[in-house]
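**Paired protein data**
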Amino acid sequence: MIITGMDGSHAGLEAASWAAREATLRQTPLQIAHAIPQWACETTTGRYAEIAEWMRDGGHSVLTAAADRAHRERPEIEIRTALLPGDPRTALTTASEEAELMVIGSHGLGAVRGLLVGSVAYGVAGHASCDVVMVGELPSLPRGEVVVGVDGSPGGEYMLDVAFAEAELHGATVRAVHSCDQPWTTDPRTSDQRPFALTEALADHRRRYPEVTVTEEVVHDHPVGALRQAAIGADPLVVGSHGYGTFAGMIIGSVSQALLHESPCPLMVVRQKAAPSGAEALD
């Protein structure tokens, strides 16, 4: 099941549209969820009953609008709606335990002016149990390419798995981008002072996905700038929830965090898988 969190914003409706297309390709139901305070879900009598009913009615209106948008996009899919009780971040994070993918709009109605990513989107991206796609504006002329950042981090293999699977599902190509500040850098897997072996890192995935065309790109730039440029017109850009250089206690890595604000296309944040025993990401 794919779940999309909805708040009635333009970005939320774009997320519903993207989620509907993804649900069709994955042949899975789409659940559209909206959260309101728990007391509003439970209060049916007393002095605040009318306010609670008004909030429930508003929530159902948000769900109906999103379901209509998703149905227009893909009328053949099964669409469910759910009014969730509680704080949206907590409610959607809990709901993600039963989802294979969570899709949310990157800009919410409650965003403070100047805050590029809503707090709900940031919180869900950092804590969800499944992979999360953040949707702002959909590319007007998508070029049929999935872009993925390759850094050799412990979660990198799973990140590549997701990117290649998405490309196969969409009939798209993969652009694998490795960025470094100098032509010669340290291979993070070996500590050798040599260029990162991008071709080697992709070899197993090329074998397992022989129908997927791959473009390799090594860029001498900061990862955020390199991935932002490569992702123009792509759908989606795939990054890890954590990579090398992440400080303990951060809910999401610095590169992925920056791209939450700056990605020019839907951004898929894949969950960091546990490292093998004795192996840990660098702080």
Observations:
- DSSP finds nine helices and ten strands in the chain.
- Strands lie at 2-5, 30-36, 79-85, 101-105, 131-135, 145-149, 173-179, 214-219, 237-240, 267-270.
